[in-house]
Write a structure and sequence with these properties.
VC0467-like; alpha+beta; globular
C-alpha cells in the first residue's frame, strides 16, 4: 500500500449513487494527483462507433497491422484531446511514468509507433480526461462517491471495458452487488 495520501497510479471506482451521471460506474486510471490537483483517464466506457483505425485516419496515419481497438471515453474535460495509457516499455517526448505501473502519452508519436508496430506492448486509447482542481479530489474522497483501489495493470489491459467496474471491485475483494447507494452518518 502506498504511504502517500495521493492516488497517482491507482484506480478510482465510482460508487453506486455517485450523483453525477457522467461518472456512473466510472473506472478512472489516476495519472496525476498532488497538492495542485488531479488528472485521471476513464477506462470503463468506450465511444460507440470509434476505433483506432478511424482515429489514425483523421491524422492521416496508415494503421498498418495495428488492431482496430476501441477508443475509450476518458472523461468530460477536453473530449477531443487524446491520450494513450500504455506499458512502460515505450516512451516518447511527453511520456509520463505513472508510479512505475503504466505510462501516459498524449502526442501523435505514440499513435505512429503503434501503427508501425514499434509502440508499447500494451496500450489503451482515450479521448478526454477527468480533472480536479487543487484539493477538490481530496475533499470528494471524504464523502460517498469514489472508492480507490491499487493500480493492478490487469484491469487496464486484460479486462474488457464493460467489465472493468465490476472487476475493479472484485480485485479489491468487494462484491459490487452489495454496495449501497449512499452512506449513513453516526
Amino acid at each position: 500500500m502506498d504511504s502517500t495520501p495521493y492516488l497517482t497510479g491507482q484506480f478510482l471506482l465510482a460508487m453506486p449513487g455517485i450523483g453525477d451521471p457522467r461518472f456512473e460506474r466510472a473506472v478512472i486510471a489516476m495519472c496525476a494527483h498532488d497538492d495542485e490537483g488531479a488528472l485521471g483517464i476513464g477506462i470503463g466506457e468506450t465511444i460507440e462507433g470509434l476505433g483506432l483505425h478511424e482515429l489514425l485516419k483523421q491524422f492521416e496515419i496508415d494503421p498498418g497491422d495495428a488492431p482496430d481497438a476501441p477508443v475509450h471515453f476518458g472523461g468530460p474535460v477536453e473530449p477531443r484531446r487524446g491520450f494513450v495509457l500504455h506499458s512502460t516499455d515505450w516512451g516518447g517526448q511527453d511520456t509520463i511514468d505513472v508510479n512505475g505501473r503504466w505510462a501516459l502519452s498524449g502526442t501523435i508519436d505514440v499513435l505512429k509507433a503503434i501503427a508501425e508496430g514499434k509502440g508499447p506492448s500494451h496500450w489503451l486509447i482515450a479521448l478526454g480526461y477527468a480533472g480536479w482542481a487543487e484539493g477538490q479530489l481530496d475533499e470528494e474522497m471524504t464523502r460517498h462517491g469514489w472508492f480507490s483501489t491499487s493500480g493492478d495493470t490487469k484491469l487496464l489491459y486484460d479486462v474488457d471495458a464493460r467489465r472493468r467496474w465490476v472487476e475493479g471491485f472484485e480485485i479489491a475483494g468487494i462484491d459490487p452487488r452489495l454496495l449501497a447507494n449512499s452512506t449513513g452518518t453516526a
